Amino acid sequence: MSSKSVQNTHIGEQLRQLHGALLDIISVMNRPQRDKDLIQAAGVRLDRALFPLLVGIGRLGRVGVVDLADRVGRDYTTVSRQIGKLEVLGLVQRRESAADRRVREAVVSPQGRAMLDAVDAARERMGSLVFQDWPEADLADLARLMRKFADTLLDGTDCSKKARRSGPFDIGPGWPAQLEPAPSWRTKAMRSILVAPGVPSGMPAVMAMRSPGRAKPS
After folding, report:
1. What are phi and psi of 64, to 5 degrees?
2. Are 160 and 187 within 8 A, CB to CB?
3. How far is CA 127 from the centre of its chain?
4. pLDDT in tens, 111-143
5. How many helices (H) and strands (E) does the chain have?
6. Do 181 and 166 meet the contact criterion of CB atoms below 8 Å apart?
């Protein structure tokens, strides 16, 4: 076996381990009870369906409805209605976008910020219990590498296209000679990481990833 094949096999094994770990993390974080426990620990009262939206708006700063709906994996009309509820509760405000006057962006109100501060404090208390037995250096490495991984994903959303190998994909006699090239192992690996089968895209971890805002009608 060539050194390149050994390296590819090694990377493939690491990606499979990373994929499995990500699925486990997403599975835990997407459990409804997690949000319920965090809301209770923070001592606030808020509909659990509205909670991820408030966290997302607080994390992003200013965001349009279309962009937020895309990030949390919900229907545009549903998100628009739920932002309306947050506005009625006094937790968010809608303002005209500085980049596009046709777009109205949601921003956290002072009352909403106070609620998010309480949530952040509760999250820190809960996180301290999770990592209480971790060496400080390990926790620092985890935070650094997770940020690096998130930034890499945000900067490389077209990795599947770049990873395709050239050449025909022959699936048997009688088929056209030139079809879409077969995905390389890198493509398959990245797809397995970026697209976790059966897992909703609106996980809280996604909200920690910041990307440039896009002007879209809201």
Report:
1. -80, 160
2. yes
3. 19
4. 999 999 999 999 999 989 999 999 999 999 999
5. 9, 3
6. yes
Tokens standing for 72? Answer: 């949390």
Strand ordering across the sheet containing 92-96: 62-64, 104-108, 92-96
Residue-by-residue DSSP string for 76-91: HHHHHHHHHHHHHTTS
Question: Cα–chain-centroid distance for residue 5?
Answer: 32
What are 119-128's contacts with CB under 8 Å, separation 24+?
Answer: 119/38, 119/39, 119/42, 119/44, 119/55, 121/42, 122/38, 122/41, 122/42, 122/43, 123/38, 125/41, 126/37, 126/38, 126/41
Asked if 125 and 37 count as a contact pair (C-beta separation under 8 A), the reply is no
Q: Indicate if the pLDDT at residue 18 is higher than 70.
A: yes
**Cα 148 to chain centroid, rounded:** 14
**Which DSSP letter does residue 48 get?**
T
Q: Which two tokens stand for residue 68?
A: 């937020």
In CATH, which of 1.10.10.10, 3.30.1330.130, 3.40.50.720, 1.25.40.10 is domain 10-134+197-208? 1.10.10.10
Note whether 101 and 26 are within 8 A (CB). Answer: no
pTM for this prediction = 0.61
